[in-house]
Amino acid sequence: MMNAMLAALSWMDPPMRTSLLMLPLFSGLLAACAATPTPEPAPPVSCNIAPANAYVGKRADHGVTEAARKATGANSVRVLGPGDVATMDYRGDRLNIMVDGQRVITRLTCG
């Protein structure tokens, strides 16, 4: 088969012929390098908001926010006040504590 390919390409100069014959080899190598990365699995949902609802109306100091985090089973917590900027990524293992201007807890969510 290789002899037939060489005969069909005999009109080309040798460097071009070699380049053309090497093309399938390099294409295969490039395809092997371009493996699709697997996406990271989403963190397990481990935030149960019900036990933390008792903290609504309390001042969000460090002790209260940590106690609320532990009550929900969340791995992390963030406190968001009026006008605060927050990322829109969803994390099932994160407790979000919304507070008013006096840092009093108004609402709790997981995510």
UniProtKB/TrEMBL annotation:
Keyword annotations of the record: Signal
Lineage: superkingdom: Bacteria
Signal sequence coordinates: 1-34
InterPro entries: Prot_inh_I78 (IPR021719)
Name of the molecule in the record: Peptidase inhibitor I78 family protein
Naturally occurring in which organism (per UniProt): Solilutibacter tolerans
Species classification: Bacteria, Pseudomonadati, Pseudomonadota, Gammaproteobacteria, Lysobacterales
